[in-house]
UniProtKB/TrEMBL annotation:
Gene3D superfamilies referenced in this protein's UniProt entry, alphabetically: Histidine kinase-like ATPase, C-terminal domain
Record-given protein name: histidine kinase
Residue span(s) of domain Histidine kinase: 173-374
Catalyses which reaction(s): ATP + protein L-histidine = ADP + protein N-phospho-L-histidine
EC number(s) stated in the UniProt entry for this protein: 2.7.13.3
Residue stretches spanning the membrane: 26-47, 53-73, 85-113, 119-139
Molecular function in Gene Ontology: ATP binding; protein histidine kinase activity
Keywords linked to the UniProt accession: ATP-binding, Kinase, Membrane, Nucleotide-binding, Transferase, Transmembrane, Transmembrane helix
Source taxonomy: Archaea, Methanobacteriati, Methanobacteriota, Stenosarchaea group, Halobacteria
Keyword Protease: no
The species this protein was found in: Natrinema altunense (strain JCM 12890 / CGMCC 1.3731 / AJ2)
Entries under PROSITE patterns matching the protein: HIS_KIN
Classification via InterPro entries: 2C_sensor_his_kinase, HATPase_C_sf, HATPase_dom, His_kinase_dom, HisKA_4TM, Sig_transdc_His_kin-like_C
């Protein structure tokens, strides 16, 4: 936790006669007033007190007074919720009154030999009791605070586990039910087009097939987001070389006209899971689909740094107009669609970045930077190439 003043909720009871945030300055002011009283006592009895008595009063009365000043300052900058301040003040006042009562009883039967001594004794009782009560109240409040935070953390962890289980279920549902149904509809529409001679019916079948294909694309985008929200879990790593090789091979099979070159090390492990593939799938499709050449050419390069692994995707397209660059990664980007928006969202989700490094008449260059997996993570976790 930072030593600076942390942000915390300022809660208070509407029926309380004392605003909770006033408690720390009240404790500090009481300590300051007590220190001034010690000075006044010294001046008033300067002729009757000796040096040892003065030193004892400074230690046993001035010390607790300074402790109260520091306690008020520390409380105001602690992570204790203000709703617990009143309890601390109660302990502080109760400790002061209780300890004073005990010592007054002792003073009745065993009084000090001088008025200055009795006053100093009572002053010490008030300060020491207040400091002791403050310490008990502060420790109690911190213990309650830690217990509440631990309970909240446990509940939050359970909620996250339930949410992740639900996301996994939705992912499976999209993959095995909705996606399969959309592909079946598209396939049957395509077969019927080949057998139909009615031009109006063929036009409608083309619409069914086109809309089904668009639905498949939307499902893929949703699955990408769900996949990203599965992690990355602790110690989860992916061999980026294997992942990129698979994505390049898939794009080559889908886009026969495209030439895709890839240059990468034998392995390059990054933190994440299989959801990373959607980042590069979108970038590769974007580079090919927006090329103006008959044979689009895309080059993928992987470079390892001490803390990150950088992937460069360069194409030979017409470049991106100036007016579109500022909104390139927005969800409603007019020319490059949802793919680049998803790529940036997913890269951020995995602790990385994706940016447009260069664009012009000779093509565009996108750079993806992902956190490199540590040696320990690499040794403990299964990577993409082992699935």
């Amino acid at each position: 936790m930072s030593h600076d003043t942390p942000a915390r909720p300022r809660t208070e009871s509407s029926r309380s006669w004392l605003k909770q945030e006033y408690v720390p300055p009240i404790i500090g002011w009481f300590g300051g007033l007590s220190a001034l009283s010690l000075v006044g006592w010294t001046v008033a009895f300067a002729g009757t007190i000796d040096v040892p008595g003065l030193l004892l009063s400074a230690a046993f009365t001035g010390g607790p007074a300074l402790g109260l000043i520091w306690g008020g300052y520390r409380l105001d900058r602690s992570d204790i919720e203000t709703s617990r301040y009143a309890r601390i003040l109660q302990w502080c006042v109760g400790g002061s009154v209780g300890f004073l009562a005990i010592n007054l009883l002792m003073m009745v039967f065993f009084p000090w030999y001088s008025l200055a001594g009795n006053i100093s004794w009572a002053h010490f009782s008030v300060n020491a009791g207040a400091v002791g009560g403050f310490a008990v109240g502060y420790v109690e409040a911190r213990a309650i605070q830690r217990e509440v935070e631990a309970t909240v953390a446990t509940v939050r962890a359970d909620q996250l586990a339930n949410e992740r289980e639900l996301l996994l279920y939705l992912n499976d549902l999209l993959r095995h039910e909705v996606l399969n149904s959309a592909q079946i509809i598209s396939g049957h529409a395509s077969l019927l087009q080949a057998e139909c001679d009615d031009e109006r019916v063929r036009t409608r079948l083309e619409t069914v097939e086109r809309e089904s294909d668009d639905l498949v694309d939307v499902i893929d985008d949703i699955r990408a987001m769900l996949e990203a929200n599965r992690g990355p879990e602790t110690h989860s790593t992916v061999d980026l070389t294997a992942l990129l090789t698979a994505q390049v091979a898939e794009c080559r099979s889908r886009f026969d006209e495209a030439v895709i070159d890839i240059e990468c090390p034998a392995s390059a492990h990054v933190q994440g899971n299989e959801g990373l593939k959607w980042i590069f799938s979108n970038l590769l499709e974007n580079a090919i689909e927006h090329a103006d050449a008959a044979t689009p050419h895309v080059r993928v390069t992987v470079d390892e740094q001490p803390e990150t692994v950088t992937v460069t995707v360069a194409d030979d397209g017409p470049g991106i107009p100036d007016k579109e660059r500022a909104r390139l990664f927005e969800r409603k980007s007019t020319n490059h669609g949802l793919g680049l928006y998803l790529s940036r969202i997913l890269a951020n989700r995995y602790g990385g970045t994706v940016d447009l490094a260069d664009t012009g008449p000779d093509g565009s260059v996108f750079v993806v930077a992902l956190p490199r997996a540590s040696v320990a993570d690499d040794a403990e976790a299964s990577d993409y190439g082992r699935h």
